Amino acid sequence: MATYLISDITVRDRTAVEIYRTRAAEAIHTYGGRYLARLGEVQVLEGSWNPNMIVIAEFPNLEQARSWYRSPEYAFALEARDTALSRNLILVGGVPTVNSDSGICGAG
Question: Which residues does residue 92 pair with via DSSP β-bridges, in sequence order?
Answer without folding.
Answer: 4
